[in-house]
Design a protein that fits this description.
Layout: H1 18-23, E1 28-32, E2 35-40, H2 44-53, E3 56-59, E4 65-69, H3 73-80, E5 93-95, E6 98-99, E7 105-107, E8 110-115, E9 118-122, H4 128-138, E10 144-146, E11 151-156, H5 160-168, E12 180-185, E13 188-193, E14 202-207, H6 210-223, E15 230-232, H7 236-241, H8 277-282
Parallel strand pairs: 3-15
Antiparallel strand pairs: 1-2, 3-11, 4-9, 4-10, 5-8, 6-7, 8-9, 11-14, 12-13, 13-14
Bound molecules: (6S)-5,6,7,8-tetrahydrofolate.
Length: 283
């Protein structure tokens, strides 16, 4: 297969980690949310075996956040997803299909409840922000919607626990799956969740302070030598083996949640209000 270079531009955004991963030998990019997402560091097969054994640091800044805050934020977030969020808790992440009025998928983000009136929708590759703004305007919701400057770095693999403990102390290993909390790194607080797009275990750091995040990125490689840390990225082999679906690749706006095996995340029996509910009842 012939390979082509990709022309970077303002439209095709870099991340705060791009210069670092290029020094470290990234060999392929894909485009995700109008941003560079590394797709390979040499052999995907070798990376696969390394990810299952040791620990990798990933530039997944392309998993952008749609921040929704304000009085009607919970109503808007619920209107967009078929997962019942009425009992959701601050400090937890929720994997939620976002669906339209036909019951078809718009995205499959992780939703973080930051406060009763503040949410981050950590999106896959589609422009959820315009969908959210349209719904907010049409429904006259009192909300603020924006894309905050948040650049996720993921630490994935079985040795991610040892590496993160070395940097953030024992408390970080007590985070439950899909829980998040704030952890100090040299005087800067970072939101860290136990999550990530692999099933090898790990964490995601939602970096808001870019300089501190870049310092942390370098530090993880300095202190991670004993765990054989390497740069990596979502791994095609591992994610397929683990059954993690990719919006735009494995499913898109022609599919409903049932066709994707998402029935776990569809609540048709509760009285919450969301788009496409009647359509899904008939499907
Ligand atoms: N992390 C963050 N944002 C993201 C992704 C991520 N946005 C885009 C994309 N990935 C969204 N897709 C998924 C798909 C699956 C999972 C996370 C994001 C996932 N699923 C678990 C599973 O299938 O076992 C748990 C789901 C559950 O039961 O709650 O982790 O990776 N920040």
């Amino acid at each position: 297969m012939k390979n082509y270079s990709i022309a970077k531009s303002r439209r095709l955004r870099s991340t705060p980690y791009t210069s670092r991963i290029e020094k470290q030998g990234v060999t392929a990019y894909t485009v995700y949310n109008h941003m560079l997402l590394p797709a390979a560091f040499g052999s995907i097969e070798e990376s696969y075996h390394h990810l299952k054994k040791d620990v990798q640091v990933w530039d997944v800044a392309a998993e952008r956040q749609v921040e929704i805050s304000g009085k009607d934020s919970a109503k808007l977030v619920q209107l967009m997803t078929c997962r019942d969020l009425s009992k959701s808790k601050v400090g937890r992440c929720y994997y939620c299909p976002i669906i339209d009025d036909n019951g078809n998928l718009i995205n499959d983000p992780v939703i973080l409840k930051l406060a009763e009136d503040k949410w981050w929708i950590s999106i896959a590759d589609s422009d959820v922000i315009f969908f959210a703004k349209g719904l907010a305007t049409g429904n006259k919701f009192d909300v603020k919607i924006l894309e905050p400057k948040v650049d996720i770095m993921a630490i994935q693999g079985p040795k991610s626990f040892d590496l993160m403990e070395k940097v953030f102390s024992k408390t970080i290993t007590e985070l439950k799956f899909f829980g998040f909390n704030y952890f100090d790194y040299k005087g800067t607080k970072h939101l860290i969740a136990r999550s990530g797009w692999s099933k090898q275990g790990g964490f995601e750091v939602y970096v808001e302070n870019t300089a501190s995040g870049q310092d942390l990125y370098d530090h993880l490689f300095d202190v991670g030598k004993e765990f054989n840390v390497k740069p990596g990225c979502p791994n095609l082999m591992e994610r397929i083996e683990s059954g993690l679906l990719s919006y735009g690749n494995d499913f898109d706006n022609n599919d409903n949640p049932f066709e994707c095996g998402f029935e776990k995340y569809v609540n048709l029996d509760s009285d919450v209000v969301f788009l496409g509910k009647e359509k899904l009842k008939k499907s």
